[in-house]
Amino acid sequence: MLRVDDLHVFYGQIHALKGVTLEVERGEIVALLGNNGAGKTTTLKTISGLLAPRRGSVTLESEVLGVMPPHEVVRKGIAHVPEGRRIFNRLTVRENLVMGAYLRHDRRIDDDMKRAFALFPRLEERLTQVAGTLSGGEQQMLAIARALMASPRLLLLDEPSMGLAPVLVEQIFEIIDDINRQGTTILLVEQNASMALSIADRAYVLETGAIVLAGSAADLAANADVKRAYLGE
């Protein structure tokens, strides 16, 4: 479904991605692991059109996306939930969800709103509340629900558990797994490697802008280097 091929991305003179190549098949959850500064967020930003690679390509279902603005990438079927949530703080929950569907003109928007409420009942309870007054967990729910309102084929999730209490982390990952079972393919960046590998089909490990390990989630969870570096074992 998605192929990232030989991506080289720079911030000025800093070579942030050094030939990153990865694939995500339809229906999968693929985790992208690595320490801070490894290039995980840069990879997602490049896929979603927020950054332009100096070399390499991003292909979605045989279509090379090229240098495409982010809203066109959304139109092609990729939605990005960024690190830090980036909700519209001064808008209500409903208004945030409507903004997620701003490119759509089909008749399924109301159905997708109901789907969002089925996944996140708390949001329906707070529909008219200003988003900036929600708790951290509720804001993360809203960020994911807003992305789903774009009706994506591929969902990019950047650190969905960041700053959340352990009980909320488990809840968010259960919902991510549910979203995938409902048919949305997911590329997941997550510092909590244990949780990420528990729901992923496959995973890649990034170090200083390059892929150093790849395999099934089960194989990486059993890998001694991964255990030592990311699982605290």
* CATH superfamily descriptor of the largest domain: P-loop containing nucleotide triphosphate hydrolases
What is the CATH architecture annotation of the largest domain? 3-Layer(aba) Sandwich
Gap between N and C termini = 34 Å
Give the structural class: alpha/beta
The largest sheet is:
6 strands, mixed
Please identify the top-level CATH class of the largest domain: Alpha Beta
Number of strands: 10
What's the pLDDT, averaged over the residues?
Answer: 93
Number of helices: 10
Q: Total domains, how many?
A: 2
CATH topology of the largest domain: Rossmann fold
Beta-strand share of residues = 25-35%
Radius of gyration: 17 Å
Account of the protein in words:
There is one protein chain. The protein is of the alpha/beta class and 233 residues long. Helix 3 (93-100) runs parallel beside helix 6. It is globular and about 45 Å long. It has ten helices and ten strands. The mean pLDDT is 93. It folds into two domains: 1-77 and 152-233, 3-Layer(aba) Sandwich (Rossmann fold), CATH 3.40.50.300; 84-149, no CATH class. The protein has a six-stranded mixed beta sheet with strand order 6-7-8-3-9-10, sandwiched between helices. Helices cover 38% and strands 26% of the residues.
Task: Summarize this structure as a short list of keywords or feature phrases.
233 residues; alpha/beta; Rossmann fold; 2 domains; six-stranded mixed beta sheet; four-stranded antiparallel beta sheet; 10 helices; 10 strands; globular
